[in-house]
C-alpha cells in the first residue's frame, strides 16, 4: 500500500536523504541514459561553439564580502 506520509518529515516537507533523482533498482527511470547522453551532447556543442572565460581575480587582498565570479561567453570565430 502506498503511504506518501512516509516520505515526509514532521512539518510536511520531503525528507532530503530519500530523494534519488532517477530512482534505483527495478523502478529506475528509463530515460536516465538518454538524459546523460543529451547533456553530454549539449555541453560538447556549447564548448565547441563558444569561448568561456572569466574575469581575472585581483592580486591584492580585500577584506569584506566575496564577489561573485563573472563568466563571459563569446562565440568562437
Automatic annotation (TrEMBL):
GO terms for biological process: organic acid metabolic process; xenobiotic metabolic process. GO terms for cellular component: cytoplasm. Heme binds at residue 29. It holds the Pfam family p450. One of its GO terms (molecular function) is heme binding. It comes from the Eukaryota. PROSITE patterns: CYTOCHROME_P450. Keywords: Heme, Iron, Metal-binding, Monooxygenase, Oxidoreductase. This is Cytochrome P450 2D6. It comes from Parasteatoda tepidariorum.
Amino acid at each position: 500500500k502506498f503511504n506518501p506520509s512516509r516520505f515526509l518529515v514532521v512539518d510536511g516537507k520531503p525528507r532530503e536523504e530519500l530523494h534519488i533523482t532517477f530512482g534505483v533498482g527495478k523502478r529506475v527511470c528509463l530515460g536516465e541514459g538518454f538524459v546523460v547522453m543529451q547533456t553530454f551532447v549539449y555541453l560538447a556543442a556549447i564548448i565547441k561553439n563558444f569561448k568561456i572565460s572569466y574575469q581575472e581575480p585581483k592580486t591584492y587582498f580585500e577584506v569584506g564580502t566575496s564577489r561573485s565570479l563573472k563568466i563571459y561567453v563569446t562565440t568562437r570565430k
